Amino acid sequence: MELLLIIGGVISLIVGIYSIFRVRKEYQHAGLLSNFTVTVVWFEYIFVTLLVIASSIYAPWQIFELTGITTLVGILLILAGIVTFSIGIAQFGSFRRMSGQDTNQLITSGIYKKSRNPQNFGWYIGLVGIAILGMSPLALGFTLAFILLLHIYITGIEEPFLRKMYGKKFKTYMKDTSRYWAFGKSNK
User: Which H helix or E strand runs over 48?
Assistant: First the structure.
């Protein structure tokens, strides 16, 4: 089973890199993402989540002994991730806007005052919670690889696109708001 999970991890990495290149190309040429690219990106998010869940269930390694505290931490991270992700989606008000298919408005209110990427931050902490609950270094490895891949996307593609699209308004927003989460000023 571990071999299948590792093969899944390689497939996820390939799809993730492919997604980054597609998004960059479409942002440069059209300024919006195609339905196909949005589908590939969402496939990657869901596929990684399933890999982390499967690794937590089937990977035989244990990081530490599962106790009441680690169970509670895992569950709280999962719940906090779901809530943060959901609030971020609701704040966007539109699946098309959230998926890069409608760029007519920069969202900077609500949860977006604390984080420029609450959906990704929520997804990150939810996956970490699953890995902790499953006591799986493999699940944690997939999670960290996904976080790194998304960080590269955010800093190398999304933020430059948004700076170009919204100019000074986005630069001010970047200065005032943390990329992931902070209480107070940005900690970029």
Answer: helix 35-58
